[in-house]
Amino acid sequence: MIRTSVRGRYENGTNGAVASAIVNAGDVELKANATFTTSPAFEDLSLSVEKPGSFVVDYSIPKKDVRFQFMNSVRLLRKQVNLTYSHWRGDNRIQLDGTLVIDSANKLSGSFEANTGNCKVKHSYKHWGGLVTFEPSYDFGNNSWDVSISRRVLDGDLVRASYQSSSKVLEVDWCRNTSMDGNFKVSASVNLDEPTKPPTLRAESIITFDL
């Protein structure tokens, strides 16, 4: 079976789309991604092999670049730790990510770039049975903090607001993922350093079907 998805995107007058095709081949998945705009030319075309929860190998055809990603989970003091190692061969960049699942409501995650020494940490806290999620984070490299808060409303819709102190960008998202209405996302962002500039508006819609 081949699972195909098409994601269309609109951003302040600019249209684009991403088409993906996934083939299940036993324990691994073969995936092809193509990114294009209103012109017929592809902006990017990539092929990947993935074993969910274990590894991903991506190859970008235009860039002739390979990304390797390996995932694993371990137990530390009776807590689950999820680890991810990523290596971009083209620019020789290495990134290590880890998530400590403290309990059902709390997660602590960190990201470290070996080339630059930059480190980011984030705490995720779920309140009211998971209806509200609060996520503060800190970037040691830029000496900046970000914060986001999201809430599930209606029949599973997600409303999320986030603020990035480094860029002074405030963003609000509304996401829906249902079998009847499909998957779509509407976003609006504004730079608080440029109050006279109109907000950036984005809309994304994903259609998934099996062949």
Number of strands: 16
Give the helices and strands as they follow along the chain.
EEEEEEEEEEEEEEEE
Query: Mean pLDDT score, rounded?
Result: 89
Task: Specify the number of helices.
Answer: 0
Q: Helix/strand/pairing class, anyone?
A: mainly beta
User: What oligomeric state do these chains adopt?
Assistant: single chain
Radius of gyration (CA) equals 19 Å
Major sheet characteristics: 16 strands, antiparallel, barrel
Give an overview of the whole structure.
It comes from Cuscuta campestris. One of its GO terms (molecular function) is voltage-gated monoatomic cation channel activity. This is Outer envelope pore protein 24, chloroplastic. InterPro entries: OEP24. Helix content is 0%, strand content 73%. β10 and β11 form a beta hairpin. It is built from no helices and 16 strands. By secondary structure, the protein is an all-beta fold. The N and C termini lie close together (6 Å). It has a 16-stranded antiparallel beta barrel. It is globular.
Compact summary:
One of its GO terms (biological process) is regulation of monoatomic ion transmembrane transport. With 211 residues, this protein is an all-beta fold.
Secondary-structure map with pairings?
Elements: E1 2-11, E2 14-25, E3 28-37, E4 42-51, E5 55-60, E6 65-76, E7 79-88, E8 93-101, E9 106-113, E10 119-127, E11 132-139, E12 144-153, E13 157-164, E14 169-178, E15 182-191, E16 200-210
Antiparallel strand pairs: 1-2, 1-16, 2-3, 3-4, 4-5, 5-6, 6-7, 7-8, 8-9, 9-10, 10-11, 11-12, 12-13, 13-14, 14-15, 15-16
